[in-house]
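Lab notebook: predicted structure, single chain.

Context: the supervisor wants predicted structures on file for every construct in the current expression panel, including those that have not yet been purified. This is the next one on the list. No modifications to the sequence; it matches the entry in the shared construct table.
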Amino acid sequence: MKDMEHQNRAGVNFTTNSSGFGDTKLAALWRLYAFETPSIGSHRFHLNTGLSLPTGVITPTDNTPLGNNSLLPYPMRLGSGTVDLLPGLTYTGVRNDVSWGFQALGTVRIGYNKQGYKEGNRYQVHSWGAYRWADWISTSARLHWQRWYNIKREDGQFQTTVGPAQIPLVPTADPDRQGGQRLDLMGGVNILFPEFMGLENHLNVEAGGPIYQYLDGPQL
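Prediction complete. Output recorded below exactly as produced.
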């Protein structure tokens, strides 16, 4: 569910909305190597593989000052419209009550979608540590860095300028203003509940926000 508040050059305020299913992701972890010693704990290395299927709508519409059922710009779209590869590498370590990990993930776009463009590739790096205070509770801290690139080509059906002077419509319709990078700092808590019918039940809550951000243009 996405919504974006706008104020145009004339000072008119309006909001656009889009909602529905996003892209469908299928992924698996493959263990590459694992070892454990009393002195340095246990260590595991996994290969991430995955595929993102284009089930999200890339032609959402809403009412805008340009008219009813106007095609919405790139940030309001629910999917990429392309088949995407999801490669990655994950490392985790545990010693006594301390655990830590590192993960690098990528989203690599294949081809162009039916609207004639493709989103830029996206890369993420996670680094975290956690401490178990008791058998039933632990806390964690995590750094999450992301880098995403501008759109290649553009949606040929989207109106990007207005009037005889060809004034640019909105920055969110500019394919060269969609890239950026961000570093988030997150904190979390994990609670283990007593077994029920032989099953373990965890509640994991995490929250945080950006401590560094650089965007090529205004974005959600």
